[in-house]
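Table S2 (continued). Query chain:
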Amino acid sequence: MQRYFLYLAYDGTRYHGWQIQPNGISVQEVLQGALATLLRQPVPVTGAGRTDTGVHARLMVAHFDFEYAGEPERRIDGPWLTDKLNRLLPPDISVYKTVPVRRDAHARFDALSRTYHYYMHFSKSPFLRAYSCRMYRMLDFAKMNEASAALFDYTDFTSFSKVNTDTKTNNCRIMQARWVELAPGEWRFEIRADRFLRNMVRAIVGTLVEVGRGRLSVDGFRAVIEGKDRCGAGESMPGNALFLVDVEYPEDIVEV
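Corresponding output:
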């Protein structure tokens, strides 16, 4: 069996997240269905992470195994599979490429880091409303960036995780966290870490918004983290403004 990495993007608006759910359609379910139709056998797919309901991905990586036994021009690591998959998949899911990787490569566990972007705007816009969160009062982004820098001093982010999850640890190593102004009245939060907890980014953004509103000091933000209590953090922000934008792997993971 050969293992492959599949690089794809999706608009998460109509999906109940990446992972297969009993009560709604998911990206994983649709992708597995398309692969099964094309390769004529069930093809389980494992993603690099679990995006929540309504969350998007400019770049998601997933792996699957398949034993190739066809004509050379139909090799699935070439443009043939990408083209065929994109014809089968709905318009809100797109495959970039498929590449062969080491037999023991794992889309989730071998990822060195993942990067998310959260978008925010302050004026009514018919073009931003679907993929950015509108705020009605300007925030103090200087204070929010000061609080964001505090994230580097911690590893336990229980305060920003959904409760009763199946994770064994709430420890993460955050490598980047900052607010960037894209245009007047348009901002983006950029965060990169070795792993993320469920709902973590939206909970961090919601708590930083409290700092930006002046309701929480930078020291108070630190106290929220140290408290390890989800009830002490801010609200979870809407998922439509959140994008998974990059997943980094070791250079030697691709089969030569």
